[in-house]
Write a structure and sequence with these properties.
heterodimer; A: D-Maltodextrin-Binding Protein, domain 2; D-Maltodextrin-Binding Protein, domain 2; 3 domains; 11 strands; B: 11 helices
Amino acid sequence: MSNGTENRTSHRTSVRCKGTENRTSHLTSVRCKRRSAVALLMLILAAMCAGDRAAHALDDPVQFLIIQPGSPGSSDEAAPLMTRLADYLAARVPGRPIVKALYVNTPDAAERAVRTLNPRAAIVTLPYYLEQRVRHRLQAKLISRPGGRAEDHYHLLVSSAGAVADWRALHGEVAGTLCFTADAASRLLFGRPASLLPFHCQPTDRLLRASRQVVSGELAGLIVTDEQYGSLMALPEGKSLKELLTTGPLPPPLVVTFEPQDGASSGLTKALLEMKNDPTARALLAELRTDGFTPVDPAVIEQVQSDYARAAGPTK
Amino acid sequence: MSFWRRSAICPIVIIGLISAGCASIPAAERPASLPPAKGGIERGDLFYAIPRTPDRVRQAALAYEGAAQLRDQSYRGDWMAARAYVWLAQYAQEDRAQQEKDIASAVDLARRAVAAAPDRAEGHYYLAAALGLFSQAHSAINHLNEMAREGELAATIDPTIDHAGPYRLLGSLYGFAPEPPISFGDQDKGLELLRQAVKLAPDEPENHFRLAQLLAAMGKRQEAREQVKTALYLDSSGNDPTETLAWQLEAQKLWQTIN
């Protein structure tokens, strides 16, 4: 019924205009000409707006992110370093666009940045990549090589005075920077999601303090990366800790790009890749605490993605 | 010893840096040689008197530098000038370029003071403070080790200067610096040092406030609230209003976050 009405109305309108072409009524003719003019104007405006949007997109700064959940500091504190990084990249991305870099160290801040800033590329931790890969359509392009290492391991540390010999016997809280992305860290280290662990994975950016709490029994354990493990074991606190579990080799932090892939994302990736061969980039790399970036091994990434997916736990 | 009354070091809350940021301290851009000036210390003290203003403190710095050209006043002139530049870098709200110059001057003069009298605390203390400001301005941590070393030397030689300033400075440094593997931050150690500062100079409001900051960061909100209340309750009328206002604004923000 309603369809019929719409059709009739449409037909009437059409007839009127067509009729105008044939009739000599000046008034009707003017009305239809006005209508056509308005339509034409709207088309022109629409075209202009589209052109405006395209121009605006070209003028938009190219956004680069460093997403390191659990790392210390704040975006403001890291701003001077981010400015140096952005300036370096801007000079090397084709077209020399304005590049902006932002450091975020919580998953919430990362989510806000990804949603609002339209980033083209980012350096992210492996757990962040695994948790957000599908959602944000991340493409792993490069690995960062902190200390020259091409791989990382995650370790579970407990008090050496304790009698626990199996992680399944742990209860209470296990802490670590990796717990900021607890689900992925849990899947990689324990082969199951965080929700199925017998303990709570408690985020902390204070590992030294947490290690003392492990020794005193306040915490059940500590989850650390290779770099964190090395530094803790070099301290007196390390003598009171023992390793209960470790992962196989894992990729270190990754450089990822966001969809849609464009010149900016590939330009950023290329500039990062070439940093290790650029003597002027040495200070910046040191500040970023890496020896440089190298291409990802797709087989390694696929394997870790597959391990992560397999550890999703029982499906409902 | 009126010059110790709030002498400009609010302990620097050292940034938790993501990186092992490195930056070099530029050479200080000051007149190569100021004319030696007798009475420069006294003139400097007059300009540095409370309430301080950027113009007056800059005059004080120049007066102290002039005094430092005299052999018998070089140590005092240098560390007092360094103190003035630290104040300027912290409170003058100049542009970034001027702030960097002031920091570089403070570092340079404090180093000269340390070289002139390594067994005195002031040079070490203001060198530590200036290095902290530099680290903060550049998000760089490559000078934090030296900052800690100088602060510890000052604390060992005379922890009472600037109302337990060395403990206050070291407490905030250890409490807020990134922990290993990035740096040497250690909240427990920072807490111990700030408690020592409060014990040594309980009438200094800022000691309580800095302790409150760290307590809050460690999740000890109840004790942090008590320390903020104590800090705001204590008499600050003898302190420099600019410095007092700066930490009291921070204290108000902290109070809102822990209540």
